[in-house]
Input
Amino acid sequence: MIKKFIDEESGKIVEKSVMNAITIDCVIFGFDNGSLEVLLIEHAEGISKGKWGLPGGWIKKEESIDNAAYRLLRELTGIKDLYLEQLRAFGEPSRFPLDRVITIGYYALIKKDMFNIKAGFTASDAKWYGLNEVENLIYDHNKILEYSLIRLRSKVKRAPIGFNLLPEKFTLLQLMQLYEEILGVQLDKPNFRRKILKMKLLVVLEEKQTNVSHRAAKLYMFDKERYEMLTNKGFIFEV
Amino acid sequence: MIKKFIDEESGKIVEKSVMNAITIDCVIFGFDNGSLEVLLIEHAEGISKGKWGLPGGWIKKEESIDNAAYRLLRELTGIKDLYLEQLRAFGEPSRFPLDRVITIGYYALIKKDMFNIKAGFTASDAKWYGLNEVENLIYDHNKILEYSLIRLRSKVKRAPIGFNLLPEKFTLLQLMQLYEEILGVQLDKPNFRRKILKMKLLVVLEEKQTNVSHRAAKLYMFDKERYEMLTNKGFIFEV
DNA sequence: CAAACTTATAGTTTATTTGACTACAAGGTT
DNA sequence: AACCTTGTAGTCAAATAAACTATAAGTTTG
Output
């Protein structure tokens, strides 16, 4: 597709192609043992062969961008049940060395206990990294990761998306530690309990923890229906 | 550029082009006489000729997406001093009737008193619309507008971007009305004053309003340097 | 088996913030 | 001069958040 532009220096009308290569790159977050991790892959082909970066891929003509992101995650992890949100488009002309490639960043939150990584046919390896173990990634992937963290931190305070990182059943301490880890703050146990329970978003279960070397904590579940009901009434989640 | 994909039904590897046409569309907000407005343009060419939509255009190969958005706004309004932020990419395959076109949405906040609209060579007319005067726009532009409003509302509470819609010098009532209009709430004058002044972000000027038929209010200016200084110390703007 | 230890959970107290409201000041208009 | 509109200062009760104390319910250790 060729379109007309005004050349800013000469003022003349020039014709240029407006076709671009577009990729998707996704930051996948997991929570394990009290720390936040991201899933990185080692590229198996092309100029970035052998280097680590975010999982990603190309968008097909007939699918929406969101669907492309879902498809890529399905190919990589096999899970269908995850939280996925677009970050934004990253389009510095220099971000990709060979051609102009615009990428659309996503981030996903998954329950780590629920799946196995399949490296897939463009990756030779896939591995979880703690946030401060991440070193130099390909292209602008460090920048995308950084941006995803900012978004995650701001979103997690205003919407109950944190639950997507925990198992179905969790204790209040686990939930608190999740918030502590993501937000990088220290929280007070009794105060956190009170605050989160007052929202009435959690269902307390009969079950308790097992195999712990201390008093077993009650297990809770997030009540999504109740959340939506409350939201419609004007309730705003805020930690 | 041709890439390989796994066909999900047959499991075979197929080759597809990954080139896409990408545009930029921008929601431009202005504030006038107590109400929030958006700048729309009437398209002068192509299949949408005669219809109203968001101002937009194509991205050149050698410019970043942000720069493309700046360039388009400059071409349209002539202003260089504005607030600009990317929303996200919109890429439903059906959003554009002829081809697959992915668009990257932006929103801008401008001081309406500072500029004149130039319709430009792809638009036959440009006009400010109050938010509830906006009717059916081309493509998915209503959706982009809706999304921009959600973003504006959430952002304006957490960052002092609202000032970009006001003249350099403004009264506290003007500022309060801006927040009332954007957030759709009623605020209490004394309480709003106290809250906003406590942040120490405003410089009070010697000047007062003129030509008003009531007690003249003091004029204030936003102190950007002070804002950045406070932010570095951990201050968080919140209305 | 009891003491020590760890985490869970309940409750108290104080400081801070928010929200609603009252009162008066400072102009211009009639 | 009376009145109207908006600006500005101050008060007070209610709600919320933050810091802290205390106790309960288990495990582990000696």
Remarks:
- The two ends of chain B are 48 Å apart (CA to CA).
- Residues 171-173, 189-190, 193-194, 212-218 of chain B lie near DNA strand D (CB under 10 Å from a C1').
